[in-house]
Task: structure prediction
Amino acid sequence: MTIPIHYVPILIWKRAEQNALANLTDEQKDYIIPLLQLVMTKPPVDKEKKRRRPIEEAFDNLILEFKNKRIPKIPEEIKTSWGQRQVYIDFSLLYTIQLKIESISRILDLGSTLSLNLIPVLNLSDSDEIKKAACSSTDKFKGVCIRAVSSDLKSIKNLNEKLSIFIQSFGLNESSVDILVDIKEKETEYYRLSNISQQIISLLKWRRFIFACGSFPEDLSKCKLDDTNSIPRSDWLSWSSCFKKGNIKRIPTFADYTIRHPIYNESLQFFAPTTSIKYTCKNDWLIMKGRKQKFELYLANAKILLNSPDVFYGEYFSFGDKYIAEKGRHYDKYIKDRKIKGTGSTESWLTASINHHIACIISQLANLPERKGIR
Result:
């Protein structure tokens, strides 16, 4: 039986995201199926020489480390953060075809021993070897998810031919396949691409139909310090507008990239981010921009947010909001004695922001006047 869902948050599988999922309530978890994007580990630094290893050596070591250390941990991490609920797992950001194939096979097998409900995500552009590895390792009942990107929508005829060939080649049927149309950062083309996606073959027969976009900026360079910055949630506003029209064949499940830019930039992990609070509101994101390494600004801005009832959702709204409230109340004590710990880390603030964002989307979707046709 298909489990109805209303939201697919697309997440980079790092500790902040893991903790954000782990701290959702059971009721909130029942409302969503997250899509987890696996990424490579951060290249280690040669401590003796205090420099990064040569590119070729570092590349080989990263592959080896992922195989030996990351792959065995991933199913356990999913079990801890998400349990045995359905979850999409995406391998597209891993470095090589062979690593993707080995990761698919081993993670799905390990997940099966833990009774995890893993649904692999495949791109139409993936090699036949990758598709075969996913389809042969997957319980047919759990099925697969096919991701179509904006370039796939240039020709709906070609897209439909590819979908038909995929189904026939691997002995699947529409009832065991989820279609994810992911236009990533192309928010200005939302309506055009959304309309084209309504022409996908057998649209009403696919197990689920999901439409994803991400409008959070790549960086906060356009945001001002010590000022209120507002960034429109164009992905949500566009989906809501399409939903309200009600004259489409099938309303897609909403999907976004929470408070991260949809294009993963691996190089950013080598730079210290600003100590900024990214707070999801009804139609926009409130950005309270801080400075690099100035962790006390997290507390100062948290206090401002805590004392803004017209913006702050309240500490009982989500785990993330409770965290913000606690840090806001901690500010006065900390400012008197900077030796007191408790500013929080970049990771913990990301956890709080992502957790609040997911809770906010769930609340908004739950309060829509009519959700008929979303599954």
User: Anything to note?
Assistant: The mean pLDDT is 90.
